[in-house]
Design brief:
Elements lengths: L1 E9 L5 E4 L9 E8 L1 E6 L2 E6 L2 E6 L5 E4 L6 E8 L4 H12 L2 E3 L4 H14 L6 H25 L3 H11 L7 H8 L3 H12 L3 H19 L4 H7 L5 H12 L3 H6 L6
Antiparallel strand pairs: 1-8, 2-7, 3-6, 3-8, 4-5, 4-7, 6-9
Helix pairs in contact: 2-3, 4-5, 8-9
């Protein structure tokens, strides 16, 4: 069933943040589309920007977080939430195949969402079976659409982007990565900056620092172990980066329990 839907606008200067493990409806699954601005989407301690023309796919009980901070630009989104037998299984399969953040280059995903939301708008005049059919069709069309996008994105630079995005903790050599995929370093960096609004080095540092914070707050691993797992040269490098980013060291970060500094 279509549980809920809507369009939201969050002006700059305010915090908008959801922690999905604390949500009221753990059985819900969602797709949230960025119409304007950039959403911060956090999964396993790793933050991925969801820019205009992209969407994030998540469950209410999956431990992800998302939102914007006061220093971010205004954010506008369209979202729809589903619930019912089999929906979480479908969502898990979609995320395993395509990831939790997907790009909609042709606007077809946005149109697909608007169509199913229109169905939900008239749900009071329709029977349960009609709504169930509409939701099933949405899921099947979503999978076919993402399959098409996946085929279109199999260019050398997209393959390089996918490899880096899938494993940000790996000690990447940009020169080796682009050589293996057959694209130029200049083209890769240009596409990367257009997509993520930052450089590959800055993005990797952000991902590794966020994952280190996540491990400090959710495990009893030592700073040495965390530094090694997150791609830092050692605990001193980890501590310096944490102080630069969060203005406090590993012990202070570890005491935080809400996921924010």
């Amino acid at each position: 069933m279509i549980k809920s839907f809507g369009e939201e606008f969050h002006p700059a200067g305010r915090t908008y943040w959801w922690v999905n493990r604390n949500r009221e409806w753990p059985g819900n699954v969602n797709v949230q589309y960025t119409l304007q601005g950039t959403l911060r989407f956090v999964q396993n301690g790793q933050e991925t920007p969801v820019n205009q023309g992209q969407a994030c796919i998540y469950n209410h009980a999956d431990g992800t977080e998302y939102g914007v901070y006061p220093e971010d630009k205004s954010y506008n989104c369209l979202w729809v939430s589903f619930a019912g037998a089999g929906m979480q299984e479908h969502w898990n399969q979609i995320r395993e195949r395509f990831g939790s953040v997907v790009t909609d280059p042709g606007g077809d995903l946005l149109q697909l969402m608007r169509e199913v939301i229109k169905t939900g708008s008239f749900s009071g005049q329709q029977d349960v079976i009609s709504i169930a059919i509409a939701v099933h069709q949405f899921v099947m069309r979503l999978i076919r659409l993402l399959d098409q996008y996946s085929e279109l994105s199999s260019t050398p630079v997209e393959q390089a982007l996918a490899r880096m995005r899938a494993n940000p903790l790996y000690p990447w050599s940009l020169k080796e990565l682009v050589a293996e995929e057959g694209c130029s370093r200049e083209h890769f960096c240009r596409v990367f900056k257009e997509r993520y609004k930052t450089t590959p080095a800055a993005w990797l540092s952000q991902q590794r620092t966020a994952h280190a914070r996540y491990l400090l707050q959710t495990t009893q691993l030592t700073s040495d172990e965390i530094a090694s797992q997150c791609g830092f040269s050692g605990p001193h490098s980890l501590a310096r980066t944490l102080r630069r980013v969060y203005q406090c060291g590993p012990q202070a970060v570890r005491k935080q329990t809400d996921g924010h500094i």
